[in-house]
Structure formats: C-alpha cells, structure tokens
Fold these 2 entries.
Entry 1:
Amino acid sequence: MHIPDGYLSPATCAALYACAAPFWYLSLQRIKRMLHTRMVPMLSLFAAFSFVVMMFNLPLPGGTTGHAVGVGIASIVLGPWAAMLAISMALLIQAFFFGDGGIMALGANCFNIAVVGSLVASLVYRVIGGRSSLDSRRRLIAAALSGYAAINISALLTAIEFGIQPMLYRDAAGTPLYAPYPLGIAIPAMMIGHLTFAGIAEAIVSAGVVSYLQRSDLSLLKLTAPDAAASENGVDLVVPVNGWRSTRSLWIGLAALMIMTPLGLLATGAAWGEWGPEDFNNPEIRDQITRSSLNQAAPEMAPRGMQRLATVWTAPMPDYAPPFLRSETFGYIMSAMFGVGLIILSFLLIGRLMQRRQGT
Amino acid sequence: MEYALTADDLARVDGLLQRLDPRVKIVGLFSLIIAASLSRKLEIIGGIFLVALVLAILSRIPLLILAKRGWITALLFTGFIALPSIFITPGNVIYRLPLLDWAVTAQGLTSATFLIGRVETSVTLSLLLVLCTPWTTVLKALRVLCVPAVFIVILEMTYRYIFLLLQKSREMLEARQSRMVGELDSRQSRRLAVAGITVLLGKTFELSSEVYLAMLSRGFRGDVDTLDEFSMTGRDWAGILFLPGLAALAIYLGR
C-alpha cells in the first residue's frame, strides 16, 4: 500500500501533505502535553517497533503470507495520536532509507496509513470494545475489526487517490500521466487484496496481540481503555467519573443547539418528502413540490393512504408551535427543550431499569 | 542490517555526491524528483534518469547495487501494475496480440512508460541520496526541509533502535528454533509470529523506560537540539546552483 513516487501527481502529493500536517501538529502537541520529557524515547521506541512489526511475515490461511502494518495494535496500545506519529516516523524511514514508498508520496502514505488508519482503528476499537472488561472476548473482536477496518479504509483512500489521477491528469492525446486506472478499476483491484490477505493479516496480529496481552500484561491495554473493567469477575471495576465534569462540554453544546433551533425558520418552503395532506391542495406548495421533484407534477390530491394515516396520531405540538404560545421563535425553543427533556427522561428510565436488572 | 552496512560503506567512498554538503544533496535530488514528477514529456524523464546515472557513476556507486536495490523491484512491481493499462487504456490501436487479439493502444503504452519511467527515476534519485550520505547526516540535513528538531532527534533514535529491536526479534526466533524439532505448521507459525510481536511490544515499553531514565540521568530536560556542523564550500554552492537549476530547466522543457 506504500505509494511510490510517480503514481500521484505533485499537486495530489502536496494536497495530502497539507492534509496530514495539521494531524502531525495536533498529535505532537497532545503527546508533548501528556508525556513531556518521556515523549522522545517513547515515540522513538514505538516508531522502531512499528517498523519492525512491518517486517514480521505472517503465514495466512490458504498458504500465502502477508505482513501487518501494525496500525491496529499501535492504536489499541498507544491511542490514535501517538500511533499516528510513531507510524509516520516508521514510514519516513522506510521511504528515505529503504525506498519503500516515495519521498514525494510520503504525505499521502502518512495520511492514508498513519493518520486515517490510526483514527479508524481507535474509533472501531473504542466503539466495539465499549466499557467491556479488558480480558473479554469482545475486546478481541474489537481489536480484530479495528485492524481490519483501518487497513481497508487506508487501502480505499489509496485507491481513490490512484483513481482520480486519470480523471485529472491526461495529455492532449488522452494519455494518463500518472496512475493510469480510473476509480472503477483502481478500487476493486486495491480492495480485493486488502479485504482478503492484508486485512486478515492485520486482524490476526491485532487480535493475537490483544489476546496475548490479556493473558500476560493487562496494564498495556489499560492505557487506551481507562474506563474498562479489569476482569470479567468484577475485580477492579472502575468508579464512574464525575457525571457533570465529564459531560459538561456536551451539555453546553446541547444548550447552544437548542437556542439555535429557530434558525430553521429562516428556510422557506416545506422540506422534500415531509408534506402534509393539506399541502397538496395549496397551489404554492404544489408548485414547490413540482420544482423540487425534477418537474414531476404532484398528484391532484393527497394520496388516500396518506390521508387515512395522517389522522391516526395528532401531535400535541404540531409544527413545533405549541398552541398556547404566540411567538414562533419561542415556540421552537420550547419544543426543543420539551423534546430533549423527553429523550433524557427516557434514557434515565432505561438506565434505572438496567441497573435494577443488574442488581438482581 | 546488511543494507545499512553497504550504505555506510558507500557513503565513505570519495565520489562526487559524497563530497557535497548533505543539504545540497537533499535540495538538489529532491528538486530533480519533483521535475521528473512534473514532466509531461518522456524524453525529459529519460534525461533526468540519465543525469541520475551519471551522478551515480561519478559518485562510484556500482550500478549493480542500484539495480538490485531499486530498479528490479520497482520494475517488477510497477511493471505488474502498468501492464494491463497497455490494453485497457482507450486510444489508437497500434498492435494486436496474435493469439489473444488484445489491442495495444498508443496511449496505454505511453501511460505505462510514463509510470515506469517516473518510478525508476525517483527510486534512483532517492537511492543516490541514501547511498552517498551517512544516515544520521541525512536526518540532520532534513532541517532544510523545515522538519522540526524534535522529529530529527526522534528519527535518529528510531533508526538506532530499529536495529536493536531487529536483533532482539532475531534472537527470540533463534531461541525458539533452537528448542524445536521438526517444522511448525501454518497455525503454529502464526501463533509464534504474534507471540513474538507481543513480547517485542513488552520489551519496547521496558526499553523506553530504561532509555528515558538514562537520558534523565544525563541531564535531559525535554529540550532537544541538533548540532549543525555543516559548512558550505565552493563546490557546494556550485551544486546548489547546478542541480536545482537543472531541475528548473527540466520542468520548463517538460511542460
């Protein structure tokens, strides 16, 4: 998957350097804050580790061999930010010293594999692993899928970058100047190998390492899953963090969104596909429906099924406008508060029920 | 490791590129790679490749090493990728394969030649940089490409520890092999590889703590700096004018 020089145009290479740069900067700032003086040796050693992992040849089912990139395991153990830096360093050394991957294409390789790969691997591991205990089977599945997803998304990005070259760069006679295959060929050609061999290699290494660590050293898995339980027997269960502090920014964001809900009033007309039966009798709205439906004229009257079902349930606050309020804007905010309140109440009830079930 | 030893040996040879300041080599060779990448004419890419060959000969780099390290691998890999494009790319048919009746198009052939030409030229130029310069010097000279000092230090340490971790991996494998009778099947080999990676991960953590303590004991406070012992001579100034100048000319002619 390491793109050599010559496959991508200089403009694409420059754009992908620009895409990777903010992530490098952000990750460097974050790691510096977290590790301070420990950063230099830690990153050096892990970049070396990532490099060496790429050299481990793995026998795969079916008699072939493949090697993992290590993006899954680096993200699971170190987290996305340190992983993206360590893998970028390993890619840089590969490009400069071993000619594996181009120097101009280094930004593209780092963006595809190190940046996006690490973020995808961490996200998948976090979502699927959830708060399950560190030694659970769920973590194994999460690890396998995180490696598999990361390598395939990276491969897909690489294929897209290849595939857009013939669309953008041709000479007067129609000769593709860089990677010659269009998206229709580049994507399947790239993905077949990655969905099978490379993806499996990455999944085996990620799940295998997590499985080994579950038996030998759980503390290494704890770094990126601090809120997970240590074992399935209930030992070392983590105390929930302070509810308000940990979710403060989310509540503030939610409040801001609620205040901004009247912005929806700025839009004119009815949303496509959200018409009421009465809208079909309104010539102005009928005209809007026709214009927004590729000039397909709306039926003369509302469909019978729609008319029948429209009266099954009458909303207590139709059109986000409680009948007791004059101001439309205030009605929107009130509706948002009411809706959000209902959702929070429902989740509190579900949470309470689940706690009671766990207690018994 | 063998690769690194050969590179170090060649970097000590008294040749043209070895005598140039590493910053000049980075800027000059990198600008030639950009020129090869920007050129829309095959003859210009061929010209840059010839310049790279002349530089290799004047720097006493055996062409066999270039062929083994770069050309053959690049040709096999890129050739395999480029081959179907000769038939797939739409355009003027110039030849039909006798038995299969597949049409070779002029556009497809040119496109494949562009790809292979660019890859071979870029690989040769990158190899020239690494083979004519000690690796630690290449890293220090990366400062001219605005790479921050902290990255340079991390890269230098990474390079050093790659060899240590490789050695550890080999020792682990040898230790296991010396205790085995017979061959491992595919599943067992897989388990062995995964176990090796995990043990290496543990060793990496341990080593990182040890290195950290060793650095602290020598007064490390988190600030990094690199010694900038480079100095430009008349030959370097000539190089900085000639190589990027040549690249600029190639870009102009290859429009």
Entry 2:
Amino acid sequence: MALPISVPRTRQRARAGANSLIVETLLNLLLIALILLLLLPIIFLFVSSLKTGREFLSSNSFLPQTWQWSNYPEMWNQANFGVYFRNSFIICGIATVVGTFFAALTGYALTRFRFPGSELFSLAVTGTQLIPGTLFFIPLYLSFLWVRNNLGVPLIGTNYGGILLYTGFYIPVSLWVMRSFFAAIPVDLEEQAMVDGATRFQAFWRIVLPLTGPGLISTGIFIFLTAWDELFFASILRLRTVPLGLLLFAGNQNNQARYDLVCAGAVAVTLPIIILFLLLQRRLVQGLTAGAVK
Amino acid sequence: MAVREMPVVTRRSWRRRVSQNRIAYAFLAPAVTLMVLIHLIPTLQALYMSLLNLRQENLRQYLRAPFVGLRHYQNILIGLFTGTGSSYVQGLAQALSNTFIFAFVVNAAILGLGLVLALLLNREFVGRGLARTLILLPWIVPTFVAGLIFRYIFLQEGGLANRILVDWLGVMNTPTTWLVGPNARWALIIAAVWRGVPLMSLMLLAGLQVIPGDLYEAAGIDGASAWQRFRYITLPMLKPIIAIQLMFGMVFNFFGFGPYNIAVAMFGGLNLGTYADLLIPTIARQTFTNQLYSYGAAASVLMMLVAMGFVVAWYRIFRDALTAQ
C-alpha cells in the first residue's frame, strides 16, 4: 500500500524493495509449483482417457500420440453408463431438493423458537454424525427389506431406496449450515408480514427463504456432491448409481487392460460436478466458510 | 455452548410451552421423522444386535437369536489389549493402529500444506481468483474417482509415479511396487492428503482474510519480524478454525467414508492388505465375508465410543479458543 507521505528513497530502501520483489517472485513460483502438483493427478486422468490402452502401459510420453476421443462413446456403451447416470441424477437431484427444504424448515425453527426439546434435538443431530455406517447398515437393510416384503414399496435395488436414504442422510449437516444463515437474517421482516396477516409458513416461504439464497445453494451443492460420491450404502441397497457403475466397470476382468476406458469413465463422472462447481463456486465458498469464520 | 438459566419447570408450564410452540414442531417434523427412521431406529436395533449371536440363518428373525450379552465386546477388548484372540480380532488390531497412523499423518500433512497454501494465496497478485479455483479442484473430484486416479498413478507398470521416478528423473533404477506391502500405506496417505488439502486451505484462507490489518501494522511499527507476526498474530487468530478443522478431520479420517471410498477404488475392493487396512473397510469386510454381524456391530460401537471420547477431549482442549470469539 502506498503511504500518504512521501518517503525519501535511500539506497538501502531501494535494495529492500528489490529484495522483496525477489521474495514475492519466489513465493509466486512456489505457489505455481504447488498448484501444478495439485492439478497433476487430474491432468494425468484426462490425458490417460485419450490414449489407447496399450499406449497407457508402454508409452513414455505424458501426452497421447493421437487423441482418442472415441474412448468416450466406447466406454459409455460398454459400461451401459446412461442408466447409471440417469439413476444418479434422479436420486441425487430429488434428495438435494427435498433434503434442502427439510433442512431449511428445521434450521428456521431452531433459530426462531425456543421450545422444549430443542437442546436434546441439537445434541441428537450432532450425535448422528458420530454413528459409524458399519454399525447400522444391517438393521437399515433389514428394515428396507421388511418394507419391501410387507408394504410392497420396492426400496432395494431401485431408486426409491436411494432417494429415501440420501434425503435423510445429509439433513443433520445441512440443517447446521441453514441454521447459521437464518441466524443472520433479522426477524423484523417476517414479524411485520405476520402482523399483516401472513401465517408463519407464509412468512417463512415468501420472506425468509428468498433471503437465504446463498444458504440454500451451498446446502444443495453439499447434498448433491456428497450423494454423488456415496458408495457404501449404495452397494448395500444395490443401487445402480455412478460410483458402483464405474467401480464395477474398472473391476471387470475384461477391462483390466483398458485403463483408457476406465479413465474416460472417471472423467465423465467428474465432469457434471465440476461444471456445477464452476457455475456456483462463489456461493458455495461463501456458504462453506460462513460457518468457519463467523 | 452457552449455559442458559434453567427455570423451574412445572408440568403445567411445560405443557403450555409445548402447545405454544406447536408450529415449531410442525417445522421439525419431516426432518425428525427421517432421522428417526434412518438414524435412530437402525442404531438402536444395531446396539441390540451387538449383544446377540447373529448368523446368516437367524438374521431376519434376529429377535430369536441367542443372547450373549457383552461377550463380543469382551472378546474384542481382551484381544486388543493382550494381542491374542481370533484372527479377526487381530485384523481389527492391525486396522486400528493403521487408522491411527493414517488419521494423524493425513491431518498433520493437510494442516501444514493447507496453511502454506493459504498464506501464499492471501497476498495481492494477478490471477488470485483463478488460483483459488484451481486449488479447490481436487476437493471437487469424487473420492472414488480420486482412488482410481491414484490406483493408476501407483501402478507398477505404466503408473505415473514410477514413470516420473524411473524414466524421467532416473532417481530409481527399477519400478517400485506401490500398492502391495508397506508402500501401500503411504500411497493411501498421499491420495487422502491430496483430496483433503484444498478444503483446509480454503477454510484457513477465510480465517486469514478476517484478521484485522492494523494488528500487523502495529506489530510492524513495534519492529516484529515476519516470523513473530506469524507466531503471535496469525496463529492465535487462526486457532478456532484450526481446532474445528482438526476435529472434523480426525472424525472424518477415523471413520468417515471418504477414506473408505478412496481405499476401495484404489485397491479394487475390500482386500486392502496389511498396511492399508483401515477400521471401516476391515469391519465391513469381516461383517460381509465371515457373517460376523454381531461382532461387527460391537466393533462399530467401540469405534463410536473412541470417536466420542476424542470429541470430548478435543472440546476440553480447545474450549477457550472456541468460546473466546
């Protein structure tokens, strides 16, 4: 920053300026090196998806000799990827919308009311995050099986089970995020609306919710990204979502030497969420860090 | 958490407060219903199952399974402390020590690298926004994809690591085996660190940006060196964020499914070998392949108790830093 008073430049100062320029340049170079190191695995994945399988194993060159874009349609057809993608979009999309809405309702109630049981509820919400998945997956599976056999709702091997599970799974974390956003919104506006005759839900839906746009978006992205990445319960409930689709394809003996196709699949699975991230990045970062610095 | 005054609540006024807040319960209802169905009931069932002797044949009518009390807990704990017991308890002991090493090394590395990156990003330079976006990309890559990437990086033939070390730099003469044997531990740690650094540096950067600049100006006038400014201003101001991130990191790396996904994708299944076996994959594998349903539930409960103990200890240590704001 420039100082408002002019300082006579002595030779010593000039040398200090040159020194700090060198330091800044070195720091910039260090930063560039670290960024390249962080990006290298992603670039490696991408260039590998455009080689041939043989080239991947034997070629000494980092870049492909000819860019095999045909790997992508080949992988897509061989792995029947369209089905997995559609399932993942349906499950994650519905879980995101419904889960965000439920988390918003709950987060709102926690900031606006002091009711008997609110402390116990908050404790329970934190507690859910400490339960290991290996503890309750068998009862969960048995319950879903029971519902299928006795109530006729096919919760296993279909998208319904995934939607139900993922909607419930991410509510605890989501409602903490939403809560911090609601806490920042003054109550005057909704109180005014309720004086004018709006119900509590109308005040929430029309006045408060539109003001929490960034909160809804960062909560929604959190749910979508996490559900997109869920593998353990997906395998228990035999969902046909992208993590299982890709790992089954990678583990298939016939594809053992087709690293190129597996890499193409990995790129295809990552692309939608990278696009989502680039579109909504600012909101997401805002939401993520809001809780951290307060 | 702030301590509130607890008024003496009579049964009458409690009931009145409940009915006054009817609307709040209505807002809570959907979330509570789902949490009861998905978290609470299965967890209670699992706690009960850990006291039974469940097998494949009595799994569906588990209420009729033989009740063995705390025997599974006893077997596990005795096995862990004396180093004896059945082969699966020994596998669990190995996984426990692996998980401790994994969680500590990964957390320490993520904190160190994340801090360096955050400090480098918290300067004025051209392209700062772009740099921040690029840094976050590894965190956007799904964990199972991260596992696949590092599986191919660490392939013995054709993997990037050996390509760089043997063919391009010539540091080593022969390709190393990364995914089998003791190296597997480090391969897994490297993958987890890569995936975890971005979020840590983002959080620390957010913390750095709210430190008031006049603190540094005052220190500059007093003649504090760069290291002193870092040690006595930056670090104390970052302490709450570091505390929270370390806690999340420990819980996440101890029994989150992120490391599970990375490991499963990296090693192509649940057989991770001696050195990369973590608690969650071990318990999952033993439960599935050996049908040790009750044992798996008991091991999970013990793991949960360790995590709770950790959170309580963490809260005691960092209480001042967390409530100071």
